[in-house]
From TrEMBL:
InterPro entries: Olfac-like_dom (IPR003112), Olfactomedin-like_domain (IPR050605). The keyword Coiled coil applies. One of its GO terms (biological process) is signal transduction. Residues 1-21 form the signal peptide. Keywords: Coiled coil, Disulfide bond, Secreted, Signal. The gene is Olfml1. GO terms for cellular component: extracellular space. It comes from Rhodinocichla rosea. This is OLFL1 protein. The keyword Signal applies.
């Protein structure tokens, strides 16, 4: 009985000892695994260190080779530079000898060639003038000699604006375009209706799909031609009766600077004379001088262009009359307007820089000046007043 009790007491102890032995074996296996992993990592680190040392040695060898090559190139470059300089010196000496012998032996031939080139150039210029005269299909035998009188027709609107008749139509309608940016034209039956006090109530209002910019617009043969507001150099052709845009074009080089320094709101100034439609503008490439362009109003295309000697500095307006540009100058504070530069595109007149044509009996500036070739008058806008100037002309010499 006692032996049986002892047996039962030993069984738990044996089980406990067996469990502890099992845990010891598991820990030993884990330690063995960890040891193997560390050995593997140590071998890989050792290989990495060896590879790095090999890379460093290889890079040093490459650096030495590159530096040695660069040193040789520098030496070769110096030698090559000396050879090139020597060759250039010899070429210059040979060129001087060639020029000397050429000038001695061929001087007469060179003179003949230059004379032929000059004759050819003169012939081409004569042909160009002939072509321009045929293009204009008319001859103007008169020139502006003075501005005889003025008539203040009305005072309406602000500082900037323009007013005009259509020289291409038989009617006597008056058109008023107030402001440097607007999209409504006022049309009056005649000048008497325009002069009435309540003229704006009787006027026919013509809205535009896009507004104008500046004061350089013209009305010709039933169309309004104007610089489109917000565009650099787009010219719009608007049909006044149908009230739609008939055509448009871009004027090369225009729109970057004002056409006239004293009228900065106008980048492109359109003009009419006996030959039709013109455009005036200034360009930085011409030093601010005015560029004159003949436009075909039907095709809306450039026919010819001229760089004039007339400066836009201190200019306030300009107009065309009989193929001739007339630029109006003033002082920045506003004084007596005067024409100081005249340019005839056909060369019948030389470009005059100070013809001394003054506007009569008036102090102040002009926002716009437009020539009416049908009535031989100037329609001007000065400080809110609508003015007509009568012109005095003489025969061209």
């Amino acid at each position: 009985m006692v032996a049986l009790q002892v047996h039962f007491l030993l069984i738990p102890s044996l089980l406990s000892i067996m469990g502890a032995a099992q845990y010891v074996m598991q820990d030993a296996a884990l330690l063995s695994y960890i040891d193997q992993r560390f050995l593997s990592l140590e071998k890989r680190l050792e290989k990495c260190s060896q590879d790095l040392l090999e890379y460093v040695d290889e890079f040093r060898e490459l650096s030495k080779a590159v530096l040695a090559r660069l040193a040789r190139l520098s030496t070769d470059k110096a030698e090559l530079k000396g050879e090139v300089e020597n060759l250039l010196t010899r070429v210059e000496h040979a060129q001087r000898d060639i020029d000397y012998f050429g000038s001695v032996t061929d001087s007469n031939a060179c003179v003949e060639v230059h004379e032929d080139l000059l004759k050819q150039q003169l012939l081409e210029e004569a042909e160009e003038k002939k072509r321009l005269k045929l293009m204009f299909n008319a001859s103007c035998d008169h020139m502006l000699a003075g501005i005889r009188s003025l008539k203040v027709v009305k005072k309406t609107g602000g500082k900037h604006g323009s007013w005009m008749k259509d020289p291409g139509k038989k009617h006597a309608k008056i058109y008023l375009l107030s402001g440097s940016v607007n999209n409504v034209i006022l049309e009056f039956a005649n000048i008497m209706a325009f002069m009435e006090n309540n003229q704006t109530l009787k006027a026919r209002r013509v809205p535009l799909p896009v507004p104008w910019e500046g004061t350089g617009h013209v009305i010709y043969q039933g169309f309004l031609f104007y610089h489109r507001h917000g565009s650099l150099n787009e010219i719009v052709k608007f049909h006044l009766q149908r009230r739609n845009v008939a055509d448009q074009m871009l004027l090369p080089g225009a729109g970057r600077i004002p056409a006239y320094q004293l009228s900065p709101q106008t980048k492109i100034d359109l003009a009419l004379d006996e030959q039709g439609l013109w455009a005036l503008h200034a360009e930085p490439e011409t030093g601010g001088n005015i560029v004159l362009t003949k436009i075909n109003p039907v095709a809306m295309a450039v026919e010819h262009s001229w760089d004039t000697p007339c400066s836009s500095r201190d200019a306030e307006a300009a107009f065309m009359a009989c193929n001739t540009l007339h630029v109006v100058y003033n002082s920045p504070s506003g004084g007596s307007s005067r024409i100081q530069c005249v340019y005839d595109v056909l060369g019948a007149l030389n470009a005059h820089t100070n013809p001394g044509l003054h506007f009569p009996k008036r102090q102040g500036g002009h926002s716009s000046v437009h020539y009416n070739p049908k009535e031989k008058q100037l329609f001007a806008w000065g400080d809110g007043s609508q003015i007509i100037y009568k012109l005095h002309t003489e025969q061209k010499v």
